[in-house]
């Protein structure tokens, strides 16, 4: 079952869902979702320095570079480009709720997709949400830190997860506060 606005407010008030900084509910709360804001840290590929990416090999630390955008300055998403970015909000989910991240239609109409694949945040997730942002359009688009970039819905599980994300030995992205490059090479093949 997806939480309605009143349930989201209650979960925030009781601390069942923890979000830091606390959201401005008047601006960020929808009927069944909560908007999150774009952070100021981005990771971009140094595509001209590497011939390809091998997911079986640990990623070279120079494969991506981090860009920190100053206050009130835009990050320009070039057409057909791809970046990793994080939300401003740090999210702490309980073991009986999952979060589902969705892009905003207003940005989608400009060609901006906010996640390519990673839409589900497991019960027990803790950290800032990393977004896989792409520009499918033909024109560059300015993205500003602090703008509402995505929304998250919260869904109840039938029972609490036996092993929430923060307790998993395979939790590769727990407590992340900046966009992390892929850690797929650590998986068994």
UniProtKB/TrEMBL annotation:
Where does the record place the catalytic residues? 132
Q: Name one Pfam family in it.
A: DCD
Question: Which pathway does the UniProt entry assign to this protein?
Answer: Pyrimidine metabolism; dUMP biosynthesis; dUMP from dCTP (dUTP route): step 1/2
Q: Where does dCTP bind?
A: 104-109, 122, 165, 172, 176
Q: Does the keyword Nucleotide-binding apply?
A: yes
Keywords for this protein:
Hydrolase, Nucleotide metabolism, Nucleotide-binding
Its EC number(s): 3.5.4.13
Top-level taxon of the source organism: Bacteria
Query: What are the GO MF terms of this UniProt record?
Result: dCTP deaminase activity; nucleotide binding
User: Catalyzes what?
Assistant: dCTP + H2O + H(+) = dUTP + NH4(+)
The UniProt record lists the keyword Transferase: no
Q: Please give a single GO biological process term from the UniProt record.
A: nucleobase-containing small molecule interconversion
Q: Which CDD domains match?
A: trimeric_dUTPase
Q: How does it assemble?
A: Homotrimer.
Query: What family is this protein classified in?
Result: Belongs to the dCTP deaminase family.
Role, per record: Catalyzes the deamination of dCTP to dUTP.
Q: Under which name does UniProt file this protein?
A: dCTP deaminase
Organism in which the protein naturally occurs = candidate division WWE3 bacterium CG_4_9_14_3_um_filter_43_9
Gene that encodes it: dcd
């Amino acid at each position: 079952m997806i939480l309605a606005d009143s349930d989201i407010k209650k979960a925030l008030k009781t601390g069942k869902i923890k979000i830091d900084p606390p959201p401005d509910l008047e601006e960020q709360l929808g009927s069944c979702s909560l908007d999150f804001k774009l952070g100021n840290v981005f990771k971009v590929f140094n595509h001209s320095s590497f011939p390809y990416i091998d997911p079986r090999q640990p990623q070279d630390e120079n494969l991506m570079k981090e860009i920190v955008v100053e206050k009130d300055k835009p990050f320009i998403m070039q057409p057909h480009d791809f970046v990793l970015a994080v939300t401003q909000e740090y999210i702490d989910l309980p073991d009986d709720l999952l979060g589902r991240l969705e892009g905003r239609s207003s940005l989608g109409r400009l060609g901006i997709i906010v996640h390519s694949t990673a839409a589900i945040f497991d019960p027990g997730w803790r950290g800032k949400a990393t977004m896989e942002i792409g520009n499918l359009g033909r024109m560059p688009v300015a993205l500003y830190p602090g703008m509402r970039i995505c929304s998250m819905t919260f869904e109840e599980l039938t029972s609490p997860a036996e092993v929430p994300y923060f307790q998993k030995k395979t939790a590769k992205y727990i407590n992340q506060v900046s966009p992390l490059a892929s850690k797929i090479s650590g998986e068994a093949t």
